[in-house]
TrEMBL record:
Keywords from the named record: DNA-binding, Transcription, Transcription regulation
UniProt cross-references to InterPro entries, sorted A to Z: Tscrpt_reg_HTH_GntR (IPR000524), WH-like_DNA-bd_sf (IPR036388), WH_DNA-bd_sf (IPR036390)
Keyword Transcription found: yes
Full protein name: GntR family transcriptional regulator
Residue span, HTH gntR-type domain: 15-84
PANTHER family reported in the protein's UniProt record: GLUCONATE OPERON TRANSCRIPTIONAL REPRESSOR (PTHR43537:SF24), TRANSCRIPTIONAL REGULATOR, GNTR FAMILY (PTHR43537)
A molecular-function term among this protein's GO annotations: DNA-binding transcription factor activity
Native source organism of the sequence: Streptomyces canus
Length: 293
């Protein structure tokens, strides 16, 4: 079974939000998996697929309706995909929206190479579920997949997320981040490694630990495209079993993703080359082995 964000909680209780469900469906529409005129599954079927209550599905469908992606919306039957679907523009997209179609295109190559430097692998984990699904459906057929991921070391004092007020003892915000980092990494690695036995694909998934908190997230696809987004730090609260965490944190899935392609001119090509050199230098020098506990 392919383990995804839809059926594995990263902290034992986390569920996909309506926005994340809407983003997943939106990408299926924009990549052509759901075509104009197609009828969506029922709310019950979607709730079962994503492991959520129907209320979350209804909110997600409402968001898609507001975006003009659905038509024939009624209580009597599932809506259809609108005949005229707004296309992707050259403008930057939220990371959760923009990454999946770029990864899907990268996975159409016989030899896939993905390098990523980020705070956690949550966005990458979710976005990879789309090309993995297409591989299982036989629609794309890579021969090899090589994924390298740089994540902050567990032993450093992170710049973010951090408590607004320094804790007296153990840092619950750091522990929360560490659990998420490890759980998401395990899911990502499992999803890709399972392709070895199911499809005979040569898969490598490697992690190394950064000695600093990355201020941006960077994705390098097949050494031909660089995607970069800034982490926007904000104060927020989160309810946990032990109380309220008041912290300075980032919402990486909502950061705007800027794309630079080697074939888009000298400026973009230089950015891709230098970004790849930067990543390779970190991988080969000051980073250390990372074990997901």
């Amino acid at each position: 079974m392919v383990v995804t964000q839809e059926n594995v909680a990263v902290n034992g209780s986390r569920r996909l939000s309506p926005q994340e469900i809407a983003d997943t469906l939106r990408e299926r529409i924009r990549t052509g998996d759901l075509k104009a005129g197609d009828r969506l599954p029922t709310q019950a079927e979607l709730a079962e697929e994503f492991g959520v209550e129907r209320g979350a599905v209804r909110q997600a469908l409402r968001a898609l309706q507001e975006d003009g992606l659905l038509s024939n919306v009624s209580k009597g039957s599932p809506p259809r995909i609108a005949e005229r679907v707004p296309g992707l523009s050259g403008e930057p997209q939220p990371t959760m929206v923009g990454l999946a179609p770029r990864l899907t295109e990268a996975f159409s190559s016989p030899h896939v190479r993905i390098d990523a430097a980020c705070l956690t692998s949550e966005t990458l984990m979710v976005a990879l579920s789309e090309p993995v699904r297409l591989i299982h459906e036989g629609r794309i057929h890579p021969e090899s997949i090589d994924v390298r991921i740089l994540l902050p070391s567990r032993d450093i004092n992170l710049a973010f997320p951090v408590p607004v007020e320094a804790p007296d003892d153990d840092n619950p915000v750091h522990q929360r981040w560490l659990e998420m980092r490890n759980a998401q990494g395990h899911v990502l690695r499992h999803n890709l490694r399972s392709l070895r036995s199911s499809h005979g694909i040569d898969v490598k998934v490697r992690f190394r630990a950064l000695p600093f908190t990355p201020p941006v997230k960077l994705y390098l696809l097949n050494q031909a495209e660089a995607l970069i987004a800034y982490y926007m730090v904000a104060r927020r609260e989160e309810a946990t079993d032990t109380g309220i965490l008041d912290m300075y944190d980032v919402l990486g899935t909502e950061s705007l993703l800027f794309s630079f392609a080697k074939n888009a001119g000298e400026r973009d090509a230089a950015f891709v080359v230098q970004s790849q050199k930067w990543f390779d230098a970190l991988w080969e020098t000051i980073t250390t082995d990372l074990t997901l506990s």
